[in-house]
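Quick illustration for those who missed Monday's session on complexes.
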Amino acid sequence: MFDYREHSHRRFNLLTGEWVQVSPHRSKRPWQGQEENANEERRPSYDEKCYLCPGNKRANGELNPDYGSTYSFVNDFGALQSDVPDGDFEQGFFRAKRERGICKVVCFSPRHDLTIPELSNDEIKGVIDLWVRECQQLALIPYVNHIQIFENKGSVMGCSNPHPHGQIWAQETVPVEPDKKQTRQSLYYLKNKRSLIADYLEKELESGERIVFENEHFVTLVPFWAIWPYETMIVPKRWMRRITELTEEERFAFADAYRRITIRYDNLFKTSFPYSAGIHQAPFDENKYPEWHWHMVFYPPLLRSATIKKFMVGYEMLANPQRDISAEYSAERLRNLPDKHYKN
Ligand code: H2U
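Prediction with 5,6-dihydrouridine-5'-monophosphate bound:
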């Protein structure tokens, strides 16, 4: 009889409408691929050459203030620009559209040597407060309709600086990934007048097999359709469109969930665990978006150790994503790890 824990199958992603190939039987195969060096260098708490440390000079000559908690600034090399001339380009098969936007860099801490899992709940709550303030301010810019908050952690993810930081890109158009999620959530809402994510979360809590962590206001789980080996989602129990709706108490609970999943990640392979993480939430235009239920996602590339990462190549580039270890196995491993950091 078919058992998704053992047999090759495809899983459906409720939020994007896409499929992932799952091959649980393949996790037994021998590994003969690349091993990288896990460079666990010790960093100083202040680095005079770091462009994110307090008081230091950035590439454009500007000085960072002597900040004591968090600090944000407009990216000196932003991919999006505010002052793009109006207009479209449409010539038969060739279409282009101007896109205005603003990119910001967000420093999570003045300490060069720390990362999110090494910060306290209060310090992470400070990061969340800053994200909320940034959303409130960026949303006031008339052309801004979408705000993408994200963190790229670790050099294997292409992060250029180990100083703990993230980015925010605010722009005119809803980009591709959140747009897919909007479509699926809105179809569900039109039919049921309910939150797709709240209803999915209820079923996950009933089963429990993909739950990693739960506190009063948040649940961390490996989604049924996870692509990355240790992909997770932090979901608020309350149906909220955007992070700007978070209460004080919920911000602390969110900080707690964010800290505990990143500690578990570091503990998994006893390394500073790389990932791309970010928040998907309703657009910031004049519409109400009752269907949206914001959440945070983590996409980490590591597979079997601090040195063996998963590459999205071959079949995955040409056909669709594929995973070997099951979401249930990953959730169980993460759930059973201590949430006290291995360095302490
Ligand atoms: P990463 O998260 O990809 O490492 O990006 C850090 C950002 O910091 C990067 O987008 C910006 C880069 O453009 N930056 C500045 O804004 N000023 C600087 O002085 C150097 C880097």
